[in-house]
Amino acid sequence: MTSSLLHAIADQYGTPVYVLDEVELVRAVAEFRQAFSDFPSSVHLAYPYKANSLESLCRHLHALGMWAEVSSGMELDLAVRFGVEPQHIIYNGIFKQDGELRRALQLACKVNVDNLEELERISEIASSLELDTVRIGIRVSPASGTNWDKFGFALEDEARAILTRIAQFENLRLVGIHAHRSNIVDLEEYRKHISAILDFASTATHEKLCDLEYIDIGSGFAVDHPAPINVDTWNAPSVSDYSQIVAELWRRESFLETVDLILEPGRRIVAPSVILLTCVVSIKRRMHENIAIVDAGQNLMPGIDWYRYPIVQVDDVDCVDPAKEYSVHGCLCDSMDILGRNIPLIDLDVGDILAIECVGGYDMSRSFTWQLPRAPVVWVNGQLSVSLVRPLLADKS
């Protein structure tokens, strides 16, 4: 998008304002389609609603052929309302209430079980619904030494036992295996992660403890931006780098020829598609630091506690002077409201517009009202037509 278009958006809608670029969204989906175009099995992309629940965004991704990955009854309701076919809804999550499970089973969504208690409840609910057989998946967790290990059944000790337990339920049939991690930038680590999942699937299949229809490897696809604040060097692999590893490991197992692969790319799809426009409202030039205060705040991009974001000037700067480093502070009455440090910018003035890039993944969904209202969202389509869309689906204003 041109600086003139972004200025026009800031003039019309004010700042701060989220700007969603439809062209970037379509490009990101196409990147996955291309990378997995020669995969030996059918491949399905499922969009995780938790990444960004904006209604226009979700509907557009479904129009592009993406399924829905949901983690709660609320998100399940959204997917149904958006017209997603129930068999294209993947219901994950660590806690699924009985009423939510009942609805998911009645709709015949793909339900991936997280724990033993949930497994037992599903069997009981299936009996109460007089369902002869319920097809389920299970979530497994290869050891990573990270917080992701809390999800699902640990491959090292729990997962094998749960296979035997499922076989004891007459009304349950295991047809899917699911695993998920985020932001795996080391390709060797990613290879080990996928290998562990497929090795488990192979054992379960050869011992006739399941009749696999799909393996859902979740995400793991790292993004260049935003980058973790505690990592100095961060270079995300291409989607093709990831797909080549999965395809290579997949081809080693003949039983996988009839098993579908499901991917759940969230941040990799939506993060680059949204920028946050904000206006400089004050400049403080000090001996050892230049501080630019803007009219956005941490409530609009809560990820700054964990990630650093690109911050650039929207103005076409016609200046031969070298860039200066600025600390960009939000306008909240909070000492922690710092949006970026050591940002190289050409001599800022009050009224200049900055673009904080790659805020489409999680930041919009996690944004909240505190001192400032949540920012509006505008949609820029492929013809550069601009329209105002609802800030977030949960907002009633």
Describe this structure as you would to a colleague.
- The longest helix has 20 residues, at 187-206.
- The protein has helices at 3-13, 22-35, 55-63, 73-81, 98-107, 116-128, 159-167, 187-206, 239-251, 267-270, 363-366, and strands spanning 17-21, 43-48, 67-70, 89-91, 110-113, 134-141, 153-154, 172-178, 214-216, 227-228, 260-263, 274-285, 290-294, 307-308, 311-313, 324-329, 338-345, 353-356, 377-380, 386-389.
- The model is unreliable at 392-397 (pLDDT under 50).
- It has two domains: 3-18 and 272-389, Lyase, Ornithine Decarboxylase, Chain A, domain 1, CATH 2.40.37.10; 22-271, Alanine racemase (TIM Barrel, Alpha-Beta Barrel), CATH 3.20.20.
- The chain has eleven helices and 20 strands.
- Strands 1, 12, 13, 15, 16, 17, 18, 19 and 20 form a nine-stranded mixed beta sheet that branches. An eight-stranded parallel beta barrel has the order 2-3-4-5-6-8-9-11, surrounded by six helices.
- Helix 2 runs parallel beside helix 9 and helix 8 packs parallel to helix 9.
- It is 29% helix and 24% strand.
- It is an alpha/beta fold and 397 residues long.
Q: Helical region count?
A: 11
Estimate nothing, just give the exact number of structural domains. Answer: 2
CATH architecture of the largest domain: Alpha-Beta Barrel
Query: How far is the N terminus from the C terminus?
Result: 28 Å
Helix content: 25-40%
| Strands, total number | 20
Percentage beta strand: 15-25%
Would you state the CATH class of the largest domain?
Alpha Beta
CATH superfamily of the largest domain: Alanine racemase
Which residues sit in consecutive blocks of at least 5 with pLDDT less than 50? 392-397
